[in-house]
Input
Amino acid sequence: MFDIIYITWAVHLLSLITSFAWWLYSAIPIYLIYILTKKSLPFLSHMGQNGSETAEPAKSKRQAKLEKRREKFGR
Output
C-alpha cells in the first residue's frame, strides 16, 4: 500500500514541473498485471498438463530394446 502513496507523492511533486506527471499512475495497474500474470501462469500451466498424465512416459532406447526382447521370448 505504501507503494501507491509513494507514487502519489511523486506525481504531486512532478506535477509542479510537468503536466504529464499523472502518467506515472499507469505504473500501478501495469505492476498489478505483472504480478497477477507471474502468479497465475504456473497455475495455468499445471491445468494444461492434466491430460498428459494418462499418456505413457517416454521410454529410453534401452527400455524399448528390453520390451522387444520380452515380446520375442514371451517373458
